[in-house]
Amino acid sequence: MSDIKIAYLEIKKKVTFLSDRYDYLNASEREELDMLNQQYKSLSVELTKEDEEWVDDKFADWYMEYITLETIGNIKPGEGD
After folding, report:
1. What is the count of structural domains for the chain?
2. pLDDT at position 1 over 80
């Protein structure tokens, strides 16, 4: 398994997580996001088509769980519940 595609997948997850919270990030977190975006772009040119497909499949699995947890975490019970 390629170290590049694993690194690319992990960076893609972090970029997604931070981008979803962009309005709430402090200056250092925004700098981190900028740096991660640069790494993400530079790694993307090194991936093969098969690597991209693998990353897309793994990311889709992660994203389904991520968005489910985000949704559940943001549901607030009504008053008196």
Report:
1. 1
2. no
